[in-house]
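User: My collaborator sent over this chain with a note saying "see what the structure looks like." That's all I know about it. Can you take a look?
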Amino acid sequence: MLFFSKKSAKIRKSFVVLWFYSLIKYFFYYRTIKLSNFFRTFALVKNFAYIFIDWMRQGVKSCWYMFKFMIPISIVVKILQETGLIVHIGNALSPLMKLMGLPGEMGLVWASSMIGNIYGGLVAYLQIAPNLEQPLTIAQVTVLSTIILIAHTFLIELVVTQRAGAKILPMFIIRFGFGFLAGVLIYWTYHFLGVLQGYPEVINTVLMGKKDPTLIEWGITQLKSYGFLFVWITALIIFLDILKRTGVIEKINSWLEPVLRILGIGKDVIPITVVGMTLGLAYGGALIINEVNQNKNIKKRDVLYALVLMAICHSIIEDSLLLMSVGAHYTGVFVFRICFALIITYAFVKITSKWSKEKMSKWFYAKI
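Assistant: Without extra context I'll predict from the sequence alone. Here is the result:
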């Protein structure tokens, strides 16, 4: 009878209430967790969408900024090539080529590279080289390749550096002048040591079999190049932003900062400088343009020093391997070019580090 007593009834009632309260608490607790997880996931997706849109905006803005001058310049280069005016520029370079131990005909090769691009220079080389009285030695091919790697694609890359913050004329003098100096130094080094005087055995058969494209083929190639450039620059912007968010950039800065600090390059432009040196000045310049627009605290002096280093030594992997495929030696296109660029940049920084802002603006800073 105890079970049916008033006291037991109160206990049963309390137990039911407690059980019902626990059930409600359990239900709403886990429902709240699910809702919070949903809203957290939604917020993450929303934030990623905003970040992705911002990446695309930066990519479109950077590429559009470049395409506005790259497309007209590409057309001008094509006109120069089709009309034969580039030959006269090559003839004017003939005396300089002889000072670097090269036949005068190689002036046309260097001119094709400077007005057009490296591929244009290679096509000119593979058309001229078989008709020379004496084949070029490995040393001569290395000299030619090194000056091409330092001074090429002027009509586009010089404008890129201008948009990034450096005046065109000083950058032209730096690339052309130090390209010539590098050629002279490499030539006399190989000549004095008596090395690499044999003839290259490796020739890029793909380039040898390449013929001049028609206007339609040229136009399609240009459109593909612009599309690839947009994808690649946007991917680099995304990659750099991820590195920044994950803290990798800070580690890279800590590793490279001592070396680049000696050169006088600030840590804010170190990642971009690495990209430009490894992938190319067009990519590095585009990223600098983007970074300058995004980060107003980057110093003009740091940007200039980074551009000087990239101007002399950029695309050290792809372009170097390309020219090695036609017989250039790694001691010139890799080792010498990197060391030469570091020495020249160090000297440039030491000379200009004490210059006033007004003097730097007069001689080097471009209005952007």
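A starting point for your reply to your collaborator: Residues 203-210 have pLDDT under 50 and may be disordered.
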